[in-house]
Design brief:
Layout lengths: L1 E4 L7 H13 L4 E5 L11 E5 L6 H12 L9 E8 L6 H14 L5 E6 H4 L3 H9 L4 E5 L9 H12 L5 E5 L18 H4 L9
Parallel strand pairs: 1-2, 3-4, 3-6, 4-5, 6-7
Antiparallel strand pairs: 2-7
Helix pairs in contact: 1-6
C-alpha cells in the first residue's frame, strides 16, 4: 500500500498522474490524502464512503473503515456509505438492501444512503458536496485518466470534486480485493454504466 498526498497544486500534473497510475498498474493499493489544513480531521465524528456498486475499491474501503473505527480517535464516528442511483428511483430501496447485506457480511456497522441523481437532476460533484460537506473524512474512488485527457485535466477534475468537502481520502485498490457482490434487479443497469466507466466520486 502506498500513501501519497493529493497534489492539488502540483506544477507538473502530467508527472504526478503518471506516478499515481504507474503505481496502480503495478497492482498496488494507492491512497491519496487531500488533507484540509483548515478543518484537519474535524471532530472525528463522521466518515462518508462513496460506493459505485461495481469495482473493488469499496472492499478496500471496508477494510480501512474497520481499522479506523478500532482506533481510539475514530471509535465513536458515525459511518455512512453513500451511492448515486443514476437509474430508476424505484430501485433505490433494493440497492440499499444489497448495500446493507454487504456491510453485514464484512461486519461493518454503518448507515446507507442512496441518492437518486436522475430524479433530483444534480451532478455528482454537487451531490457529494451537499451530502459530505460536514463529514470529517470522506473516502472516494480514484479516476483513470481518460483517453485524450491530460494529467492537468485529471488533477483539475479531481480538484473540482474534492473541493469544499474537508479532508478526503482517494483510494484505488489492488486486485487482491474482490468486488463485493451487489445483486441488482435484472431490469436495472448498474449506476457505473450510466457514469461511463470508473470515475472519481464513489466506489
Amino acid at each position: 500500500t502506498v500513501l501519497l498526498g493529493w497534489a492539488r497544486a502540483t506544477p507538473d500534473p502530467d508527472r504526478f498522474s503518471s506516478l499515481v497510475h504507474g503505481l496502480a498498474s503495478e497492482d498496488l493499493n494507492v491512497l491519496l490524502l487531500d488533507y484540509d489544513r483548515d478543518r484537519g480531521w474535524g471532530e472525528r465524528r463522521r466518515i462518508d464512503v462513496w460506493w459505485r456498486l461495481s469495482g473493488n475499491d469499496v472492499a478496500f474501503s471496508l477494510v480501512l473503515i474497520r481499522s479506523l473505527t478500532l482506533s481510539d480517535e475514530w471509535r465513536n464516528a458515525q459511518v455512512r456509505f453513500l451511492t448515486v442511483n443514476a437509474g430508476d428511483p424505484a430501485f433505490a430501496a433494493a440497492i440499499a438492501r444489497e448495500m446493507y447485506r454487504v456491510l453485514e457480511s464484512y461486519r461493518v456497522e454503518a448507515d446507507v444512503r442512496v441518492i437518486n441523481s436522475a430524479f433530483e437532476g444534480r451532478s455528482f460533484p454537487d451531490v457529494l458536496r451537499a451530502e459530505s460537506v460536514d463529514a470529517d473524512l470522506t473516502i472516494i474512488g480514484i479516476a483513470d485518466v481518460e483517453e485524450g485527457h491530460t494529467g492537468e485535466r485529471w488533477v483539475a477534475d479531481t480538484n473540482g470534486i474534492v473541493d469544499r468537502i474537508g479532508t478526503t481520502l482517494i483510494v484505488n485498490a489492488s486486485s487482491s480485493f474482490d468486488e463485493p457482490l451487489i445483486r441488482l434487479p435484472s431490469t436495472m443497469a448498474a449506476p457505473a454504466a450510466a457514469e461511463g466507466g470508473k470515475e472519481v466520486g464513489y466506489e
